[in-house]
Design a protein that fits this description.
- By secondary structure, the chain is mainly alpha-helical.
- Helix content is 68%, strand content 4%.
- The chain has helices at 3-11, 15-20, 32-79, 88-102, 105-117, 123-136, 139-145, 152-183, 185-196, 208-220, 225-232, 290-319, 322-333, 343-359, 362-374, 380-393, 395-405, 408-428, 432-451, 454-475, 479-505, 528-537, 542-547, 555-562, and strands at 247-258, 264-275.
- The chain has a two-stranded antiparallel ribbon.
- A hairpin with a 5-residue loop joins strand 1 (247-258) and strand 2 (264-275).
- Helix 6 crosses helix 18 (408-428), helix 8 packs antiparallel against helix 15 (362-374) and helix 8 crosses helix 18 (408-428).
């Protein structure tokens, strides 16, 4: 690389360059009136930013409730179907698809916990479903990153920040599912934990996020989650039952419950006294079906989510520039002085875990950080640490749901979920060279998406829908066929990794034609043929034409766009 290209690569993440190009007047050079104006504008921006963040969180909550109304009963039917739980791979895929559809891993896992407590499925069969739910919940970040697609460099970083969650979860599941099938360590260890602790009764999860969003969400819709749990336990429901809450005044009554596995417990149930009306929330006793209310709320929540996110990004972009952006970036991303620099990442993990335990939503935590990664305020390595912490923090939901059931088997499953996420942390984070694997994978996806804008939608469809549906279809075939296909895919992936390493190192003993991908057909090592197809297929769309990278871009421009982002993970 020549000298000009080296300077260009260095300037991509050069904080001094940003400070020098800040067109705002320094505070010390401002007059009194200018300072008052600056403080006033800054205060208003902060208020609008907090309001946008609040609406963003509320829209996520409403979207989850809307999808529960649309697909909640179907999700329970799928989870309780023996056809779909015939083998671990099917359970894994069902966990992915159901969580992608209802957009809440907490809801998916709570349903499974209720099924385990009722003895409908075993802990062994439910473990792959919980793993799949971990993958399905990460699609929220990717959807948030799509709203930053207007700016190529921001989109590159935001998509990498979003997909680092995908990469971490997918790679953890691939490795740990195989280990679990061979050793059964999750089931065995969690069983040992359950036997060693006394019986505990929980009172339910913290209400921090519910309290925060209640002024909007509580006045629009109330969802009765107990309907799904009763369906999951295969219990008879009262006539006219609905996932939309029907009773707003209830009283507690103690009854004796006998489960299918013969377990008999005394359980407190709620008996309705007064039905909900429009004074309680907007869609109470509306006469609309669950699906109609869910569809209306889903469309409305998506509109509000996109609008609030775009406004939030605009405010951050106008506020975080020059010296201020450099100062905040240093405060967030700078490591502690030696020899305590290694503690910085672990503190980020602890923060992600703690915040998620409080608000009980890993999607809210990681989705809020995604735009900040796109704006360059939070680096990718910090995003990975917070994501891992959020994954561990969200396991508290399953533990509390299990404690509420009073079932040792349900508590065992919740500990399996917790142990799975802790094992993922131990597997990928403590060793620095292991962290680079998900970081480089996410960085590569960000680079591809910045060059081919259509790849973002293609990625979501293929990873979260097409591949799971194909694997689900194959899982109904004999076990030996499914195992053969999976082994073949793993061998191909291993060969690709080996060839990539060899062509990067370029050993002298390797034949010249094997030092790159040129010996393969173009479509096997490049997206250009697919890009030409997408260009022709969507050539009529003006947005697609605007987003398309000009073929006539100079080598210097192309070097700027690709330099530094995929070669040095620590600067992302």
């Amino acid at each position: 690389m020549d000298t000009a290209d080296e300077k260009m690569k260095k300037n991509i993440d050069d904080e001094a360059w940003e400070a020098e190009n800040d067109d705002s007047i320094p505070w010390r050079d401002q007059t009194t009136s200018q300072r008052v104006k600056t403080v006033l504008i800054g205060t208003l921006k902060f208020i609008f930013l907090v309001a946008c963040l609040w609406f963003f969180i509320c829209s996520l909550k409403i979207m989850t409730k809307a999808l529960n109304l649309l697909a909640g009963r179907v999700a329970v039917d799928i989870f309780t179907s023996n056809v779909f739980l015939s083998n671990p791979i099917t359970g894994l895929i069902i966990g992915v698809l159901v969580t992608v559809v209802i957009q809440s891993s907490s809801t998916s896992i709570s349903i499974v916990v209720a099924m385990v407590a009722a003895g409908i499925i075993s802990v062994e069969k439910s473990i792959p479903i919980v793993m799949g739910a971990n993958i399905g919940t990460s699609v929220t970040n990717t959807g948030v990153a799509l709203t930053l697609s207007a700016n190529k460099e921001e989109f590159r970083k935001a998509f990498a920040g979003a997909t680092v969650h995908d990469c971490f979860n997918i790679m953890s599941v691939i490795i740990l599912l195989i280990v679990e099938l061979i050793t059964g360590y999750l089931e065995a260890f969690s069983h040992a934990v359950i036997k060693s602790i006394p019986e505990i009764d929980g009172s339910g999860p913290p209400k921090f996020l519910t309290t925060l969003t209640e002024p909007i969400v509580g006045n629009i819709i109330h969802v009765n989650g107990s309907v799904q749990k009763l369906l999951a336990r295969n219990e008879t429901l009262e006539p006219g039952n609905s996932i939309i809450q029907l009773w707003c005044n209830q009283t507690k009554t103690m009854i004796e419950k006998t489960f299918q596995n013969g377990t008999v417990i005394n359980q407190t149930v709620l008996v309705g006294i007064r039905k909900c009306d429009r004074g309680d929330f907007l869609f109470a006793d509306s006469g609309w079906s669950e699906q109609a209310v869910g569809a209306f709320l889903f469309v409305g929540s998506v509109i509000v989510l996109i609008a609030s996110l775009l406004l939030m990004v605009k405010i951050l972009t106008s506020s975080l520039k020059g010296g201020l952006k450099v100062a905040i970036r240093k405060a967030v991303n700078t490591d502690f002085p030696k020899p305590f620099g290694w503690l910085s990442g672990y503190i980020a993990v602890f923060v992600g875990c703690g915040v998620t335990m409080i608000i009980q939503s890993s999607s809210v935590v990681t989705s809020t950080l995604t735009p900040l990664v796109g704006l360059g305020v939070v680096k990718l390595k910090r995003m990975l640490a917070v994501t891992i912490g959020a994954n561990m923090g969200t396991t508290l939901t399953a533990v509390l749901a299990a404690l509420a059931t009073g079932s040792p088997l349900a508590l065992q499953l919740s500990f399996c979920h917790m142990l799975f996420n802790i094992t993922g942390f131990v597997l990928w984070y403590p060793l620095p060279f292991m962290r680079k694997i998900p970081l480089k994978a996410a960085t590569g996806l960000g680079n591809i998406t910045a060059k081919y804008r259509w790849f973002s939608g293609f990625y979501v469809i293929v990873v979260f829908f097409l591949i799971p549906l194909i694997v689900l279809g194959m899982s109904f075939a004999p076990v030996w066929f499914l195992a053969s296909v999976i082994i073949l895919i793993l061998v191909i992936v291993l060969v690709i990794i080996i060839v990539n390493v060899l062509q990067t190192k370029r050993p002298h003993w390797l034949p010249l034609k094997l030092r790159n991908w040129d010996f393969l057909p173009l479509w096997m090592h490049s997206l250009k043929p697919l890009d030409r197809f997408m260009t022709k297929a969507f050539g009529w769309c003006r947005c697609c034409k605007c987003c398309r990278e000009p073929e006539s871009a100079s080598p210097a421009v192309r070097t700027y766009e690709n330099a530094g982002f995929d070669n040095d993970v620590s600067k992302v």
